[in-house]
Amino acid sequence: MLAQPVIRPSLAQDIPDITAIYTVHVLEGTASFELIPPSEAEMAQRREAVLAAGLPHFVAELDGRVVGYAYAGPYRPRPAYAHTVENSVYVADSVHRRGVGRALMSAVIEACEAAGKRQMIAVIGDSANQASIQLHGALGFEHIGTLQHVGFKHGRWIDSVLMQRPLGPGAETLPTR
């Protein structure tokens, strides 16, 4: 039986591991449309911005080692979007298909619901990224649309897949915060 990941809030000392995981996705994958991996200082600033917004930023550990991270950030800066967040999840290649992404995303969803958020958007890089599309689908996200050929990376055009899920009562009632 495989060990279950331990999900916990990220700490400043996790930044080197978070940066290393994200660097692989930037350099080798299409989940991120960045072309140059950000520095540890930039990743620390990004984490701080998420936390300052009152949103979750989690890591997953297996055998005491950080193997993934996920967070929710503001969907857009304008005030009318205040109840909508966008999620991000990145997992080390060595632990794909071991439930790490699902555990991270479940924690992010739960924290966003507790914070009174009402909608979560997933902007998935590459319509060929079936693992992420399936993960989000299994967690209640619905396919909203595909923006075709909006990114160019690794010598080819890449789509963005948009998925969405309601949080808590979603749009059924007016927000209280």
The SS-based structural class is: alpha+beta
Taking the alpha carbons of the first and last residues, their distance comes to 43 Å
β-strand percent reads: 25-35%
The mean pLDDT is 95
Please describe the structure with a list of short key phrases separated by commas or semicolons.
33% strand; single chain
Write up what this structure looks like.
It is a single chain. This protein is of the alpha+beta class and 177 residues long. It contains 4 helices and 7 strands, in the order E-H-H-E-E-E-H-E-H-E-E. It has helices at residues 15-28, 40-52, 100-114, 130-138, and strands at residues 6-9, 57-62, 65-74, 84-91, 119-125, 142-153, 156-166. Helix 1 (15-28) crosses helix 2 (40-52).
Topology (SSEs and partners):
Layout: E1 6-9, H1 15-28, H2 40-52, E2 57-62, E3 65-74, E4 84-91, H3 100-114, E5 119-125, H4 130-138, E6 142-153, E7 156-166
Parallel strand pairs: 4-5
Antiparallel strand pairs: 1-2, 2-3, 3-4, 5-7, 6-7
Helix pairs in contact: 1-2
Summary, kept brief:
The chain is an alpha+beta fold and 177 residues long.
